[in-house]
């Protein structure tokens, strides 16, 4: 989440404003990374380089991209000082790209294994994002962040996935032609051309691409049925399609836990399952009536 | 004796956060320390400490930042810096 706040709003932790907490939390994560020899890149929020984002915007959580092979080290380090895992990579999002940890003092940290829209091997993508990284002071401590070109791409891809945000105006619209060309070249290297096109209004140039419907869904919205149709089209191969079907009808217990503020009972999971079936049936019925 | 913010401290002030006019700073010892808040005159001393120096340097800087007579705040600044050293947010070193 990236709420804009004019003052230092406090969140559910109460004792420290969100913006201050997020800055300090980035520094805490970086210190853990330094100690453990763990490669991470800080993304979004205070990690964004000046001029790439609307001033005054604050993130409510910490986003880091970890070198995939270093994930076990980072998890151990986070949990050693009290972070608790709340969502898994399988349930965190459509892209299975991130999982969340919660700390009673430092709030949420989103650990990303890859960035939605990037289609090359995650370990290789991390190498590309790390190339020419920049050390940015967050809470007066150096934190590695992607360079300006990579940050522009990251912000545009995030915007595309979020149905469009003002980030695009700063990260893309305010860039000159040479800077935009650099972003396009980077997107090509990362296999992120379709996602970039979705973010900058050029998606129709990729109509025949398997992920076209998925990105159109993110940009334009639609029903859950539309989303699944798009995900089905984007899933390549029998394995991916089987995985998708299995996931489709499984209740996301991590999200249910967050909704309830406690682990769900078996009955609550069943009730949610019934609700999903009813919702799916309702959408089918609505389509039948429309046609 | 020179004083400075300890190496393992992360901190932010309202200047870093576009957070308004009230002097306030938040800090912690990374990675395992709790969040700590200094506001008002405490924050001003912290900002003066950020540049490092002798107790007299810090006192004079804090007086300038708060538009106050250094003689009026000297004892309070010494007390606060001493406390910051005790809780290891500040280091002291012989030079």
What's the helix and strand layout?
The complex is a heterodimer of chains A (about 290) and B (about 100).
Chain A: H1 18-36, E1 40-43, E2 62-66, H2 71-80, E3 84-85, H3 89-92, E4 98-103, E5 107-112, H4 122-130, E6 134-138, E7 141-145, H5 148-161, H6 167-173, H7 177-189, H8 193-200, H9 212-220, H10 224-234, H11 238-248, H12 253-260, H13 266-290
Parallel strand pairs in A: 2-5
Antiparallel strand pairs in A: 1-2, 3-4, 4-5, 6-7
Chain B: E1 2-5, E2 9-13, H1 14-17, E3 24-29, E4 36-39, H2 41-50, E5 53-54, H3 55-66, H4 70-86, E6 90-93
Antiparallel strand pairs in B: 1-5, 1-6, 2-3, 3-4
Helix pairs in contact in B: 2-3, 3-4
Structure description:
The complex is a heterodimer of chains A (291) and B (95). Helix content of chain A is 51%, strand content 11%. Chain A is an alpha+beta fold and 291 residues long. In chain A, β4 (98-103) and β5 (107-112) form a beta hairpin. The longest helix of chain A has 25 residues, at 266-290. Chain A is globular and about 55 Å long. Chain B is of the alpha+beta class. Chain B has one domain: Arc Repressor Mutant, subunit A (Orthogonal Bundle). Helix content of chain B is 45%, strand content 26%. Chain B is built from 4 helices and 6 strands. Chain B has helices at 14-17, 41-50, 55-66, 70-86, and strands at residues 2-5, 9-13, 24-29, 36-39, 53-54, 90-93. Chain B has a 3-stranded antiparallel sheet. In chain B, strands 2-3-4 form a 3-stranded antiparallel sheet. The A-B interface holds A 7-8, 15-17, 19-21, 23-24, 27-32, 35, 55-56, 58, 81, 105, 138-141 and B 5, 8-12, 14, 16-20, 26-28, 30-32, 34-35, 37, 50.
């Amino acid at each position: 989440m990236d709420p804009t706040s004019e003052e230092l709003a406090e969140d559910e932790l109460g004792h420290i404003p969100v913006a201050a907490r997020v800055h300090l939390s980035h520094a805490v994560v970086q210190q853990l990374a330094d100690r453990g020899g763990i490669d991470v890149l800080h993304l979004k929020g205070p990690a964004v380089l000046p001029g790439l984002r609307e001033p005054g915007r604050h993130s409510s959580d910490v986003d880091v991209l970890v070198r995939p092979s270093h994930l076990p080290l980072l998890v151990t380090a986070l949990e050693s000082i009290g972070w608790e895992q709340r969502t898994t990579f399988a349930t965190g999002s459509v892209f299975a790209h991130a999982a969340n940890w919660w700390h009673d003092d430092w709030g949420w940290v989103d650990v990303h294994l890859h960035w939605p829209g990037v289609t090359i091997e995650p370990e290789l993508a991390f190498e590309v994002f790390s190339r020419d990284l920049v050390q940015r002071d967050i809470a007066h401590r150096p934190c590695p962040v992607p360079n300006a070109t990579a940050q522009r791409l990251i912000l545009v891809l995030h915007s595309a996935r979020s149905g469009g945000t003002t980030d695009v105006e700063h990260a893309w619209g305010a860039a000159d032609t040479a800077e935009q060309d650099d972003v396009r070249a980077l997107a090509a290297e990362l296999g992120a051309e379709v996602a970039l096109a979705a973010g900058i209004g050029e998606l129709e140039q990729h109509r025949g691409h398997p992920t076209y419907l998925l990105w159109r869904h993110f940009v334009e919205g639609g029903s859950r049925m539309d989303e699944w149709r798009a995900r089905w089209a984007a899933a390549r191969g029998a394995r991916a399609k089987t995985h998708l079907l299995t996931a489709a009808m499984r209740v996301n217990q991590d999200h249910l836990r967050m909704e309830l503020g406690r682990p769900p009972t078996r009955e609550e999971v069943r009730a949610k399952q019934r609700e999903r079936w009813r919702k799916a049936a309702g959408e089918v019925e609505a389509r039948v009536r429309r046609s | 004796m020179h004083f400075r913010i300890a190496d393992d401290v992360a901190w932010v002030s309202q200047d870093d956060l576009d957070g308004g006019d009230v002097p306030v700073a938040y800090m912690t010892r990374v990675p395992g320390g709790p969040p700590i808040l200094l506001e008002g005159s405490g924050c001003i001393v912290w900002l003066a400490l950020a540049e490092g120096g002798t107790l007299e340097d810090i006192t004079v800087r804090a007086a300038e930042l708060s538009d106050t007579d250094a003689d009026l705040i000297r004892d309070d600044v010494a007390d606060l810096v001493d406390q910051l050293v005790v809780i290891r947010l500040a280091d002291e070193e012989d030079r």
